[in-house]
Design brief:
There is one protein chain. With 106 residues, the chain is an alpha+beta fold. It has one domain: Lrp/AsnC effector binding domain/regulation of amino acid metabolism (RAM) domain (Alpha-Beta Plaits), CATH 3.30.70.920. The protein is built from 4 helices and 4 strands. The protein has a 4-stranded antiparallel β-sheet with strand order 2-3-1-4. The relative contact order is 0.24.
Length: 106
C-alpha cells in the first residue's frame, strides 16, 4: 500500500463539531471512512497554524484516497490537501530511471 499525507482545515461548522465530539471521536470517524475504501490510518495529529489536522494514511490506490477527499469535501466540515509520500527506496528507483525529455523550445 502507498502512503499519503492528508492535511485538513476545518470549516466553522467542522470546528464546532470537533469541539462538540472531541478529537478521539473524530479519529474513529476518520478510521471508519478510510476503512470503507480499503485504506487505514497510520497516525493523526491536530495542529495549530495553517492546517488543523494531519493524517498519514495507508491506501491501496490513488482512487481510494480521492474518494476519501471527495467525501470529506462534499460533507462541508473540512477541506483537505493530499500529498503522495515516497519511501527512500522509491526515490532510489526513480533516480535509476532515465527519462527522455525535451524542454520547451529545445
Amino acid at each position: 500500500m502507498a502512503k499519503y499525507l492528508i492535511a485538513g482545515t476545518y470549516s466553522v461548522e467542522g470546528a464546532k463539531g470537533l469541539m462538540k465530539e472531541g478529537g478521539a471521536s473524530r479519529r474513529a470517524a476518520i478510521e471508519a471512512l478510510l476503512s470503507s475504501t480499503g485504506a487505514s490510518l497510520d497516525c493523526i495529529y491536530y495542529a495549530f497554524g495553517g492546517k488543523d489536522v494531519y493524517l498519514i494514511v495507508d491506501a491501496p490506490s490513488n482512487e481510494a484516497v480521492a474518494a476519501v477527499a471527495l467525501a470529506i469535501g462534499a460533507a462541508g466540515g473540512a477541506s483537505v490537501e493530499t500529498t503522495v509520500l515516497l519511501t527512500p527506496e522509491q526515490i532510489d528507483a526513480a533516480r535509476d530511471l532515465t527519462p527522455q525529455y525535451r524542454p520547451p523550445g529545445g
